[in-house]
Batch of 4 targets.
Target 1
Amino acid sequence: MRRFFFDPNTRLGDKVTLSEQESYHIAKVLRLQKDSQIELLDGLGEVFAAVVVDVGRNVTCRIVGQRETVETEKVPLWVGQGLLNGKKMDTTIQQCTELGVARLTPVVSSRCQGRPDEMQGRRKSDRWDRIVVSACKQCRRVQPMEIDEVIDFPAMLALTNQDADLLRLIFWEEEEEVRLDDVMSADQPVTGVCILLGPEGGFSRSEMATAKELGWQTVSLGSRILRAETATLTAVSLVQYLVGNL
Ligand code: SAH
C-alpha cells in the first residue's frame, strides 16, 4: 500500500489535507484517483488507513482506520555533520535517513567548504525535508529524521553537553588507538549516542582539543583517511549496528 506523510495539525476530524509535495506525488506521479486506498503517516509513529477524497493541488483524504503504532529506535542516534558541499550534504541526509538516524545537526566548523548561508538556506527551504520524506517512503521509515538549524561547532558542543547520559563520539583521522568497539559494547548499554563527523577539510586541532576537554571521546575508523561522506556512512552504519538499530 502506498504511504504518504501528513501534518497532524492539518487533521480535522477524519479529514486530512496533504502538502503540495505529497499531493504532487499522488496526483501527478502516481495518478491516483478519488477513492484510492492509501496509508497515511503522521510522522510521529502512527500509521492510518485512508482513502483519497479529492485530487487537486492539495489532496484531501479521509482516515478510515488505524493500522499500527511504530515504536521509535531504542537508542536514538544523533549525527553532527560538518557542512559538506551541497550535493554531498544531500546524499548524506538521504543515507542517514535510510540508516535510521534520529536527528542530524549541520555544523559549521573552521575548515568546512559548504557555505553556511547556502546551507542555512537549504534548511529553511524545504529541500532537505523533501529528501528526508522521500527517503522515508522508499525505506518505509515512519518517523522522519529531524534536521536542526545550521549551528557552529561551539554551539554543537554546548547543545550536546546538556545531556549527561549521551555517549559523545567524535571521529578523528588522527586518533590512532581508540576504535568503536573500545567505547561501545553490549555490556556497556547506552541510552543515546551523538557522533560528530568533520567536513571535507576535517576538524582543526584546536576544535579537537576543545571537544576533548568537554568529555568527547575521539574515535578512529582505521588508518586510511576516508572521504567525509564515506566516513559518515561508515560511522553511522557501525554505530547503528552496535546499538542494535540495524
Ligand atoms: N582533514 C583531513 C581529512 C578529513 S576527512 C585531510 O584532508 O587530510 C573528513 C572527516 O571524516 C573527518 O573530519 C573525520 O570526521 C572523518 N574521518 C575520515 N577518515 C577517518 C578515520 N580514518 N578515522 C576517523 N574519522 C575519519
Target 2
Amino acid sequence: MGMAVARVSRHAGEAVRRGHPWIFRSAVGQVSSREEQGLIVRIVAEHDGQREAVLGAGVFDPISPIAIRVWSVGADARLDAGVFRERLVRAIALRGELFADGATDAYRVLNGEGDRTPGIVVDRYADVAVLRIDGDATRAVSPLLLTSLEPILRDAGVTTLLERIPSRDAGGRDTTVAVRFGPERSRVVVREHGVPFVVDVARGQKTGAFLDQRENRRRVGELVAARARAGLGTRTLNLFSYTGGFSQRAALAGATVTSVDVAAKAHATAQESFRLAGLDPAEHTFVTADAFAWLAEAKRKGQTWDVVISDPPSFAPSERAKPKAISAYRALHRSCADVLAPGGRLVAASCSSHVSLEDFLSTLDDAALGRSDLRVLESFGPPPDHPTVAPFFEGRYLKLAMLA
Ligand code: SAH
C-alpha cells in the first residue's frame, strides 16, 4: 500500500526527531492525499523547496489542531497493526514489572503518547479494561491498527473491554460506553497497594478512577501514619475528594477525615470503599458542597486541620487560560493555608497540563499562602504506569507538592 506523504516544517521535523508526538496544523504543508480522515502518512521535512529524508510515520487529521500524531521515527518508519502490537506487548511487560507484587490491579496499561501509541489509552480495573481513543483520525484508523488488542488483553486476563467514547454534544466532556468484548460491567472492586475500593467504569470520571494519583494516595497514607507515630495531629481535610481515594488512605492510617466534593454520588462510592477496607464511614465526615465557599465558611468558624489535601479539577484547559488558572490556584491555596493548623501538612495537586511544576510552586509562595512558615518538602509528577516521552511536557500534567 502506497503511503501518503505529509510535508512538515523544518522546525516540526526537529521536534519529531526529538520524539515529540504531535505536529500542529500550522507546521504541516502539502499532504499528498486529503480525502480520508485518518490517513497514515509518511512525514517528510521540507525547507526552501528542498525535500529531506523520511522522518517518520503517523496519523494525519485534516480537521484537528493536532494535524499529525507521530507513531514512528526514522527513515524506514512503518505504522501498521504490527507496530501497535509491538508497543502494546512492551507496555504490558512494563506493567508486569511495575506491579509484580500483585498488590495493585488498577493501573494504566497503555498511556497513549507516553507509550508511543498516540491517542490510544487503556486502563485496567481488575479483569475489566477501558479503552479511550483521542482524536477522530486515530479513531478512523483504529480498526486497522488495534487488531491484536483483544487477543493480547484476553491473554493478560482481561474479560471485558469497554470503550469510553467522547460525546459531541457535551464538547467531549461526557462519554458514552460501548462494549468491545465480554459481558457488560460497571461496578468493579479493585485493589491499590492491597487496599480495596470501588470503581464505576461506566459512569465514573476519566475511565472510572484517577489512577494517576495512586502513588500520591499511598504517600498521604504514609505521612499520616508517620505523624501518628510521632505523636502529631492527623485530623485530615480532603478537598475535591471524588470517590475518597486520599480520604480512605488517611483514614486507614488512623486519621479522622473530612471529605468535601460537590458530587453527592462520589461520596456514596467513597463510603462503600471505606466499608470494603474495614472503615466505618460514620466516624468520618462527608460534605457535599462547593469547596471554595465551604473553605470560606470553615475559616470564618476558625476550624483547622493537621493535614489538608487539595486536588481540584483542571483550571487551565488551554495556554490562554493559564494566567487565570495561576490566580485561581493562589486563591485556593490561600484558603487551604487558612485552615491548616500550625505544624500541619499541605498536600496540593494540579492536573492542568499548561501549568508547569515551577508555575505550580509559584502558587504556593508566602504571599499566596499568607503565612511564611511553610516549606516545600517534596514534589511529585506522574507515576511510572503513566510514562511520558521527554519532549512532551503535556504528558506530565500531574504535579503534587507536599509542604510543612
Ligand atoms: N482526589 C481525587 C480526584 C479529584 S477529581 C482522587 O484521588 O480520586 C476532582 C473532583 O473535584 C471531582 O470529584 C469533582 O466532583 C470535584 N469538584 C469540582 N468542582 C468542585 C467544587 N467547586 N467544589 C467541590 N468539589 C468540586
Target 3
Amino acid sequence: MRLIHLDEVDSTQNYIKLHPEFGDGTAVLASSQTAGRGRLGRSFASPKNLGMYLSVVLPPNTQNITPIAAVAGRRALARVGVDCGIKWVNDLVVERGGAFRKLCGILAELSGGRLILGVGIDIGQRESDFPPELRSICTSVALEGGRTVTPREMAEIFLDELGRALALDEDALYDEYSARCVTIGRAVEVKRVPSDPGRTAVAVALTRDFAVEVAYPDGEREVVFSGEASLRLG
Ligand code: BTN
C-alpha cells in the first residue's frame, strides 16, 4: 500500500475522487478535514491530530467491504488496547455505563470505477473536544484507556489489519463479524427514511449476506439491508 499524508483537506474521500490516477492500494491520511463526511449525508468531525482520517482505494468488485473494514478496525483498535463491538452496519462502539459510544465510522463509496473506503477513528479526544451534543455518544482511544498512538501509527496498524481482513474467507469473516456485532439480540428502531417515526423491533439474526433480520412485537419478521434502513439501538 502507498500512504499519502496530507496536512489539511476538505475530505480524504473527495481528494481521492480528484485524483483518478490513484490506483488500488493508495491510501490518503489527513491530519485534519474541513468537511469530513459520514454516511447518510452526515458530517464527520475531524479536528487536527485528534483522529485518524483515512481513505483507501480498492478494486470496485470488492465484496462485503463494510464488514471487512469493521473487522479490520476492531482488530486494529484491539492492538492499541481498546476492545470494541460492531454496531451494524458500520460503526465501532464501546459499551460504557449501559450505553454504546462510537469511536470509529466507516464509509464506502463507489466512484469512477473505484471503491473508496473511508475510515475515521477518534483517537486523542477528551470529552470537552467533542461538541456537547456528541459527548454522551462518542468516545476515543484515549478516553477508553488505550495506549498513546499517533494518527499515522493508527493508519499503519489499520492498513495492516485491512490487508489481513481482505484475505479472510466468507465464513471466517461472517463468524468474526457476527461474534462481535452488538446489534443482534437487542431492541432496535427500524427507520426507512430519516423522517420515518421508526418501528420498534428486536434484531434477531445476522443473515449470511450481512443483513439483519428483525422481529416486530406483532410477530412479523423482516430482513433489513444496509442502505435500505437504519437501526437505532433501543
Ligand atoms: C460514519 O460514521 O458515518 C462514517 C464516517 C467516515 C469518516 C471518514 S474520515 C476519512 C474519510 N473522509 C471522509 O470525509 N469521511 C471518511
Target 4
Amino acid sequence: MTTLVTGASGYVGAHVAWHLQALGERVVGLDAWLNRTQNPLPEGALAVHGDVGDAELVAQLAARHRFDQVVHCAGLIQVGESVRHPDRYWDTNLVAAKRLLDTLRAAGLSPRVVFSSTAAVYGEPSRLPLDEDHPRLPQSPYGASKLAFEALLADYDQAYGLRSVSLRYFNACGKGPYPGVCERHEPETHLVPLAIDAALGRRGPLAVFGADWPTPDGTCVRDYVHVTDLAEVHHRALAYLRDGGPSARINVGTGHGHSVREVLAAVGRVTGRSVPHHDAPRREGDVAVLVAGVTRARSALGWEARRTDLDAIVRDALEGRALLP
Ligand code: UFG
C-alpha cells in the first residue's frame, strides 16, 4: 500500500508522513518547499520536490507508485495573507488540488483521500461547540478555498466514486517524537510558537489581539490540538476509508478551549519566564471562540485527542523551537 502525502515537509504533513511510515506504510512525500525551512522525511520514504498542480510530475509518480491513498496536506494557510492575495489561495488550495485529483484519475487511479481542511470553513459560530453541520460561512479566501475543495470532493464521490475524509483542523500545536520535525512556518503567525519565542527573548513582546472579546478573560478562546493526535487521526481516517466508510467531514479538535491568556500562562510555567506582551487591537478575521464538537470523530473514527494538557503541549512545542536557528 503506497500513500502519497502532499505538503510532506510542512508541519502537519511531516508528522503524518513519519507516523504512517512508523506504522509500516510506504510513503511518497511531495512538497513544493514553499516554506524556506523544510521538515525532513523519514528514512525509507521517497521525497519528491514539486507542485501538486504539476500534471506531468504527478502523472509520472502515479504511473510508478499506483497510489492507493492520498493525504492532501499541501496548501496555503494564512487567513490574513489570503485576504490580500486571494488569487494565490484559490490557485493553490483549489485549482492545483483539483489538478492533482484529475491527474490521478487520468492515470486510472481512484485513491482514497484524506484532506487537510480547517475550522475556518465555519466562520462566526452561531452555536458552540461547532458540530460539522454548523453553517459554513467562511470569512476569508483561505476558509472559502478549503470549503470549495470539500465541495469538489463531494461531487467527485458522487460522480466518480472517489471517497474522502475532510479533516477540519482546529489549532494544531506541539511537536511529535520525530527528529528534526517541528512547526517551521515562515513567517510564523501562530500563538504558541510566538509566545514561546517572546518568552525566550527571541522576539519582542507578543501582541494580544483583542482584550475585549466576550469571553471570561476578554481574549479569544481556541481549541489547541496536539500535532501527534492530528497525525493519528489521519491514519484513522485512512483506515476508515479502507474499511469502506462513506465520505465524511470531521472536526479534529479536543472539544475544550483555552484563552490567549491561558496559553501565555502555560508558556510562562513551562519556560519559567513570563511572556512579555501587550494588548493590541483585534486581528481582522478573528472570532471570539472556536471549539470543536468532537462527537463525529469519536463515532466515525474511534478517535479522540489524548494529548490535551496545555503545559505538555507547550513543553513539546518548546522542544521544536529549540531546533530552529
Ligand atoms: N493571537 C494573538 N497574538 C498573536 C498570534 C495569535 O493574540 O501574535 C491570538 C489570535 O488572535 C487567536 C489565537 O491567538 O485568538 C490563536 O491564533 P493563531 O494564529 O495561532 O490561530 P488561529 O486560531 O487564528 O488559526 C488557526 C489556524 C488556521 C485555521 C484556524 C481555524 O492557524 O489555519 O485556526 O480556526 F484556519
